[in-house]
Amino acid sequence: MQRWLSPLLFLATAGLGLTGCGRPFDVKTAPGLVELDDQEPEYSYRAIAPERVVMAVRVVDTKGRGDLEFWTRATTLRMHELDGYALLGTADVKSRDGTPGHELRFGHDEGHKPYLYVLRVFVAGKRLFLVETGGPQPQMERYKGTLDWMQATLKLD
Amino acid sequence: MKRVHLGWVLFMVLLAPAASGCAGEMKAGAMVSAGGTAPEPPAPPPPPPPAVAAAPGGGPLALAMNDPAKAKSVSDTPHSAAMLIYTANLSLAVFQVEPGLDAVERVAREVGGYLSSRQDNSITIRVPRDRFDDTIVRIEKLGDVTHRDIKAQDVTDEFVDIQARLKNAYSIRDRLNELLSRAAVKEALEIEKELGRVTEDIERMEGKLKLLRDQMAFSTVTVTFAPVAVEQVQDSTILAPFPWMRGLGLQSLLNVHQ
């Protein structure tokens, strides 16, 4: 009995790793985008469309420090005051599991071409979740429905 | 009887403030001893208002940044009558730089000013002094203000000093001309040399006065659009002492490694 239990456990563990279940979140990749392999240590998840539209998720261990407002303000200041991103708008959002978060919409010129960068900030337990989407403005507008759908599938553990 | 009554009144008057001052302390002390535990700490002060949200839209020109209560128009200061040169340096984060530069140039024309210089990310305009405040307010609406530096330089002393020296130089020139008309050839050469030097001084001082008058009549506004300088980005540890924050943004997001 024990002899066939070990391979079973191994397969189960490997299966979890392959499907990405080891992540503290779940997100679905929409048709039109492809998930990239092993994006550590920067990203826990990153998917890209051929038109250079990208969606990514970062997970940061905050050790319980800072609440949603703190991290939202810290990231806003970082993007706005140091990197010169223009804050186009903010919104309150929720993940699929009901975790409240904030969305920050930034615009930035890259080589005189307008780009959009949307950052969603969530705090769940001792983790900070940063969901980033970005790309050239026309492509971002084209992919809006797809990206909205992907955002809506995000579930935090 | 009357003396006794007056004494009581004086006693009560002196006692009343002391008693009221003690009441608060006694009350606080009573709270500690009555329950046997420390009182609940007061509610924390509200967080400071976000500077980012306050910046767009501008409002009245604020010399004290991020403090709308101290917002004050430059031209409303008591020094309005003084000889002042206004200069402003603004940094704006905008979505699109090129339309931003165009908009600043348009503002300059609309207020009766003109374009002084224009580069890739910055533009300098000159605007009439009485439209300076209006210009700043309009420019601040074009994007998010990340830096604002407004100066009023008092040049009254300098102006008056040059005027006095110029007046003196004119009278020296007149006297030299008078001497020249009566001088012999050898002396005339010396006088002409001196006259040349004085004329040169006069031209320089006239030029300086003209420049000061122009600088007073037209204020200089320089607007720089994002991205900000590299030196400022290296300051990131001040605002973002978390290493992962440096990776935020389009550059990292769109730079796909496999």
Provide a short characterization of the protein structure.
By secondary structure, chain A is α+β, with helices and mostly antiparallel strands. Helix content of chain A is 31%, strand content 38%.
In the CATH hierarchy, the architecture of chain A is 3-Layer(aba) Sandwich
Q: In terms of per-residue confidence, which ranges of chain B show pLDDT below 50 for 5 or more consecutive residues?
A: 9-42, 44-80, 228-238
The major sheet of chain A is characterized as: 7 strands, antiparallel
- Biggest sheet, spatial arrangement of strands of chain A: 2-3-4-8-7-6-5
What is the fold-level CATH name, i.e. the topology of chain A? Answer: Protein Transport Mog1p, Chain A
Report the radius of gyration of chain A as a whole number of Å.
18 Å
SSE order of chain B, one letter for each helix or strand: HHEHEEHEHHEHHH
Rg calculated over all Cα atoms of chain B: 33 Å
Task: Tell me the strand order in the biggest sheet of chain B.
Answer: 2-3-5-1-4
Number of domains of chain A: 1
Poorly predicted spans of chain A:
7-20
The description of the largest β-sheet of chain B is: 5 strands, mixed
What is the β-strand count of chain A? 9
Structural class of chain B: alpha+beta
Range of strand content of chain A: 35-45%
| Count of alpha/pi helices of chain A | 4
Question: Explain this structure to me?
Answer:
The complex is a heterodimer of chains A (157) and B (258). Chain A has 157 residues and is α+β, with helices and mostly antiparallel strands. Chain A is built from 4 helices and 9 strands; from the N terminus they run H-E-E-E-E-H-E-E-E-E-H-H-E. Residues 7-20 of chain A have low confidence and may be disordered. Chain B is α+β, with helices and mostly antiparallel strands and 258 residues long. Chain B has a domain at 64-229. Chain B has 9 helices and 5 strands. Chain B has helices at 2-35, 51-54, 97-110, 132-140, 156-182, 185-217, 230-233, 236-239, 250-254, and strands at residues 84-93, 114-118, 122-128, 144-154, 218-225. In chain B, a hairpin with a 3-residue loop joins strand 2 (114-118) and strand 3. The model of chain B is unreliable at 9-42, 44-80 and 228-238 (pLDDT under 50). The A-B interface holds A 36-37, 42, 46, 48, 52, 54, 56, 58, 60, 69, 73-88, 107-110, 112, 114-115, 117, 119, 130, 132, 134-135 and B 47, 50, 52, 56, 93-98, 143-144, 146, 225-228, 232-233, 235-236, 239-240, 242, 244-245, 247-250, 252-254, 256, 258.
